Amino acid sequence: MQVSVIAKGLNVYTLQSLAVSGGNYIVPTLDGQLLTVTPAGTRTVLADLLKADLGVPFGMTEQGTDLIVTVSGYLPQHYLVRVKADGAVSTIADLSEMSGAYGAPFGVVVDRDVYWVTLSQDVVEDQSQLVRVDAQGKASAIADLSRFGNPFGITMRDRSFVVAQSFGHLVQVTEQGEVSSIADLKSAGFGLPFDVAVWRDRLVATTNAGLVIQVMPDGKVSAIVNVQEQKFGIPAGIAVDGEDLVVTTNGGFLLRVSG
What we know:
This protein has about 260 residues and is mostly beta strands. It has one helix spanning about 95-100, and strands at about 1-5, 20, 25-30, 35, 45-50, 55-65, 65-70, 80-85, 90-95, 105-110, 115-120, 125-135, 140-145, 150-155, 160-165, 170-175, 180-185, 195-200, 200-205, 210-215, 220-225, 235-240, 245-250, 255-259.
């Protein structure tokens, strides 16, 4: 696989996601900003969620031309918000009570105007849930994911959800709340997953071992590329851009993986 640099000098944390929207890349930063980065590497600030008194963005997904974003503040305060293409921000749901003083919402996907959020109630004690948020902002717990640790990135596959968990598993969750392990990346030597996506016929994920990995339909796991070995840092967010993958790293890079 070929790895090329789209942008560098980004203040990115490993638990932050990444989105492709309107032919550009949306990168959340620890400064609280959502940056729009073009394929040529030009960047502009789409929204500043810290200045809006909402917090730091983590998970992202697209809903039409809008972005749906999980945000965590310091009071603590935790929200699911909508960011329009012009940067206007509105709150979909206040998740502060569900997340509590020691938790946070992380990943998010949208399906038929319903939002599915991975949420930790206590990141120290590894108490975690998959939460359903309806179009009116009402949140309800669907599945307890605590036995797999804290839940980070999430994607959809075949009407089910795939969650990257802090104990090292990629976990499948049905809409009815049935939970099962797809792959134990840690035991297989690939590290702990941060973000996950569906690419071609397989799952792909970033891990703390510096890898972008793939899980084939038959369950076989292999490394696509070691971005840490190439001096780019630990990969964080991952998203699909046509036939390619785009990846952020805690070294501040936005990368294209192709081939």
